[in-house]
Design brief:
One of its GO terms (molecular function) is ATP binding. It is a single chain. The chain is of the alpha/beta class. It contains ten helices and 13 strands. A six-stranded mixed β-sheet has the order 5-6-7-3-8-9, sandwiched between helices. A four-stranded antiparallel β-sheet has the order 11-12-10-13, covered by helices on one side. The chain has a three-stranded antiparallel β-sheet with strand order 2-1-4, covered by helices on one side. β6 (145-149), α5 and β7 (175-180) form a beta-alpha-beta unit. The longest helix has 14 residues, at 98-111. Bound molecules: adenosine-5'-triphosphate. Residues 13, 18, 36, 38-44, 73 line the site of adenosine-5'-triphosphate.
């Protein structure tokens, strides 16, 4: 079931179109990563979905009575409030009854790992703590749709792991759309990918669809030196690429599988240091797609 349908969504500032005719849907209970270089239009798109900006053209159709949580890229806090006071205030603003707001805020701060800091003033918080606090205010009312603008970019690797795990645990009941530059993490928590560049959606699909379209897996054979690699590549009938002392064999139905390669390699006299089957990472695919458009 689609809980969001976006059709030809466009945003203009003066003459400049910064979001151009985006169309996509968000299915209930899925996580979608919005990926693109700086200035691609990710924040503008998320802000329109959160109703903070109005579209110049196109439509956003939301499921009836959909509740939304939003984490902006640079959340602002009131430095004189404690984390608990701030999240309690956010809970009340999002419609939670006053008598339940404090309990809900406490539980949410525990959930995001700020249990020991909830009575501290937010002015003294580190970047990572602020990111967690921003997430807490976005989820305190248990929204059905969660829009997150760079939720993990200010965190160190341990913090990123913790927040990704938290988001994964929310995913059962929540539909998530998040922008990110950290593609390795996106690879873990993504049912759908949306690649943006210069305001356009340049690629979309599931992780496996995008990988199949742009990056066939390959077998990498390492030789002691480039001469040996070139000599091996020349003697095989398969299409291959030589980079330094490596030979790369693309794998698809007309090309060899690992077993066939190992059989050939067993008959090679010398020079082979290692053989590996490799799949392209999301980062490699992203760089390739962005460069091609
Ligand atoms: N209020 C505004 N007035 C004019 N141009 C704007 C405004 N807000 C954003 N833009 C322009 O729109 C384009 C898209 O910006 P946006 O912040 O949506 O990109 P982004 O993909 O989120 O980038 P980043 O990864 O750097 O956050 C940029 O060229 C930006 O300069």
């Amino acid at each position: 079931m689609n809980i969001v349908e976006v059709e030809k969504l466009t945003k203009r500032y003066g003459q400049q179109e910064v979001v151009k005719q985006l169309s996509f849907v968000l299915e209930k209970g899925t996580a979608t990563a919005l990926i693109g270089p700086n200035g691609a239009g990710k924040t503008t798109t998320l802000s329109m979905l959160a109703s903070l900006l109005s579209p110049s053209n196109g439509t956003i159709t939301l499921a009836e009575n959909l509740t939304i949580g939003f984490l902006p890229q640079y959340p602002q806090f009131f430095p004189w409030l404690t984390a608990l006071e701030f999240v309690e205030m956010a809970a009340k603003i999002s419609g939670i009854e006053a008598r339940k707001a404090k309990l809900q805020a406490t539980r949410t701060l525990e959930f995001v790992g700020l249990e020991t800091a909830m009575n501290k003033k937010t002015g003294a918080f580190s970047g990572g703590m602020k990111q967690r606090l921003g997430l807490a205010q976005a989820i305190v009312h248990q929204p059905q749709l969660l829009l997150l603008d760079e939720p993990i970019s200010a965190l160190d690797p341990t913090g990123r792991r913790e927040i990704m795990d938290l988001l994964k645990s929310l995913q059962q009941d929540t539909t998530i759309l998040y922008s990110t530059h950290i593609l390795n993490d996106a690879e873990e928590m993504t049912d759908q990918l949306l690649f943006m560049k210069d305001g356009c959606l340049i690629e979309q699909g599931s992780l496996s669809e995008v990988k199949n379209r742009h990056a066939a897996p390959h077998i990498r054979i390492q030789f002691q030196n480039q001469t040996q690699a070139l000599d091996f590549a020349r003697r095989q009938s398969w299409e291959s690429e030589v980079k330094e002392s490596f030979v790369f064999l693309p794998v698809h139905e007309n090309y060899p599988n690992m077993q066939q390669v190992l059989r050939i390699l067993a008959s090679e006299q010398q020079g082979i240091i290692g053989v590996e089957s490799q799949a392209a990472s999301l980062e490699e695919i992203f760089l390739k797609v962005v460069a091609a458009k």
